[in-house]
Design a protein that fits this description.
The structure is a single chain. By secondary structure, the protein is α+β, with helices and mostly antiparallel strands. The two termini are 13 Å apart. InterPro entries: Acyl_CoA_acyltransferase. This is N-acetyltransferase domain-containing protein.
């Protein structure tokens, strides 16, 4: 898949349906990795309906033809200033092409708010690898492991190249 066929887009409430379709396409294991629990279809639809769009930041990759989302990244503010909870999902057919890494890099670059660290509460190994690839400080703690990416430990990352993640 070539980068030129994809576009990175900020997501908003108008993208609610596309986000729901993207998340509903995740299998049981992927839903668990994304949410920390296995949500059924009805619970997932309710979760999407309840998103507080003004409080959160969302980005996604989609084909320029306008077909559904291939990947989605969510940032939710935490009580710690400059710290945001991170959740990321990438459709299986396009994994290992660098979409997640590029999405993470772009979200950090385009954040319109103070952003020093990202917290991944489910400790997924792919998130650790992406953080290291981008040169962020990576800390693991707790059980199950939680990931803390210190994005403020280096200059603003550039767009990651496809095929690196």
């Amino acid at each position: 898949m070539w980068r030129s066929t994809l576009e990175l887009v900020p997501l908003s409430a108008e993208d609610r349906r596309a986000l729901a379709v993207h998340l509903l396409a995740l299998d049981t294991d992927d839903r668990y990795a994304r949410f920390g629990c296995t949500l059924g279809d009805a619970a997932l639809r309710n979760w999407v309906r309840g998103i507080s769009w003004p409080a959160q930041r969302w980005w996604g990759w989609r084909r320029r033809t306008g077909a559904g989302l291939l990947a989605a990244l969510q940032l939710v503010p935490t009580a710690e200033p400059g710290a945001w909870e991170l959740a990321l999902s990438v459709q299986r057919p396009v994994r290992r092409l660098g979409l997640g890494t590029a999405l993470l890099s772009a979200a950090v670059c385009r954040a319109d708010t103070e952003l020093h660290c990202l917290l991944g509460h489910h400790g997924h190994g792919a998130l650790v690898a992406m953080g290291r690839r981008l040169g962020y400080g990576v800390q693991l703690s707790g059980q199950p492991p939680r990931v803390r990416l210190q994005v403020g430990t280096r200059g603003a990352p550039g767009e990651a190249e496809m095929g690196q993640g």
